[in-house]
Amino acid sequence: MTNNNIFLQEINNIFGQLITTNLSSTATSKIYEAYIFSIIIQAARNENAQIVLKDIDGNVTSNIVFRGAPGYIFSRAARYTFAEIIFPGKPLLEAHVSVRVTGKSGVLHEFDISVVYQTEAEQCRLQQRVPRSSKVLIEVECKFYSTNLQLILARAFRGLLSDISVTKSFFVTNQSPGSFGRFLSYGKNKWEWEHNIVPNLDNDVNRLRSQFQSVFKDFKVS
Amino acid sequence: MEETKCNEIFEQLKTSLKDFKLNWIVEQVENEIRIGKLSEEEPENGDIKYTFDFYDNRQRPKSKMSYIKEYSAKDKLILLLNAIEEVIINIPSMENSLLFNLQDKPFHIEFYSEDPNINSFTITRETTLKNVELSRKLNILLDELRIEVHK
Fold first, then answer.
1. A15 near B21, Cβ under 8 Å?
2. Nearest to B80 by CA among B134, B12, B147
């Protein structure tokens, strides 16, 4: 048996032992969103925020439930978790995974991660309505792909920006910058983009975390 | 590694991924191969798929041309190995990071879908740690295979 055959046999053995339920295309995208959510939480904590994980009724929780598909902030289909972000003397914020938000046109958009003013989030839960993008401090589009990103995703992101009035939008991916990086760097002002955001690439992850921290820094003095 | 051997391993890995319900990785790789490789270097004769001139017909001293090349058998195999790494190495690391870095270090995290067409799933410490261990072994094998490909 050649070396290559041994490699293939060993790779096959590993595939056979993996628990692949979390490795579907949809599941990996959702895990990626949750991972980016955790980086936002770290950024807020680095800026001296107090973080409390809560459920839809505002109770502190350690049973973490994220949305497996985009949904409404007021949904009671499950006891979805959000992070309350507390900066002393400042309006309270909430970080959510995969909720729908209305744009300037009144159209619904799906934000992978959003940091919303709590007054808006509470009103939405009470009135069963959708948060307005003008009440969102940070919005992140998370793109987890196994190969290079297609330009159409970056184009869709720039299209989305024309209909929302978020303080800062981010386009974040696990992939290296290809054409999309060039496209997003050109004319950049109200958005940021980051690439190679995976756990073992500390430099890139630290840069993203710092950018989130910068938004929180400005928020603290606003 | 010879092109025919690269093709052979590429096909075998594709079959394995399909067998283990990871066909979406193969689909993304095949899509990338269909699009071709973007390059600013002029390819050798016969290798070119399309040419774009970013500056159209305007007079510019140095027009930047982009060429789309076909992926070689070696390139295709490397593309597939990288795709496997992106998913099978990085996702367990992200799960691990979530379970151990989030406040209160939860034992499990549920992803609940209201959409009946999308499956709900749960990550637990037990499954994550198992996948992290396996992904470490896989990472070593993928690195060794890459070295073989470049020989």
1. no
2. B12
Helix (H) or strand (E) run with residue B136 in it:
helix B125-150
Structure tokens at A109: 């958009």
Q: How far is B62 from chain A (nearest CA, A)?
A: 19
Residue from B70, B10, B2, B6 nearest B39 by CA: B70
| Secondary structure of residue A192 in the 3-state scheme | strand
pLDDT tens-place string over residues A34-87: 999 999 999 999 999 999 999 999 999 999 999 999 999 999 999 999 999 999
- Chain B positions in Cβ-Cβ contact with residue A145 (cut-off 8 Å): 28, 86
Residues in chain B with CB shorter than 8 Å from the CB of A41 are 102-103
Cross-strand partners of A67: B112
pTM as predicted: 0.92
B24 touches chain A (CB under 8 A): yes
User: Strand, coil or helix: what is A64?
Assistant: strand
Contact across the interface for B112 and A78, Cβ inside 8 Å: yes
Tokens of B37: 């490789």
Distance CA A103, CA A139 (A): 12
Distance from C-alpha of A145 to C-alpha of B129, rounded to nearest angstrom = 23
Which residues of chain B make contact with A53, given a CB cutoff of 8 A?
102-104
Query: Per the CB < 8 Å rule, is B98 touching A38?
Result: yes
How deeply is A67 buried, as exposed, middle or buried, from its count of CB atoms within 10 A (0-12, 13-18, 19+)?
buried
Of B78, B53, B88, nearest in space to A28 by CA: B88
Interface test with A, best of B5, B25, B29, B113 (most A CBs within 10 A): B113
Residue-wise pLDDT for B108-120, tens only, equals 999 999 998 999 9
- The packing angle between helices B3-19 and B23-35, to 10°, is 140
Of A3, A34, A42, the CB nearest to B109: A34
| Phi, psi angles (nearest 5°) of residue A2 | -80, 165
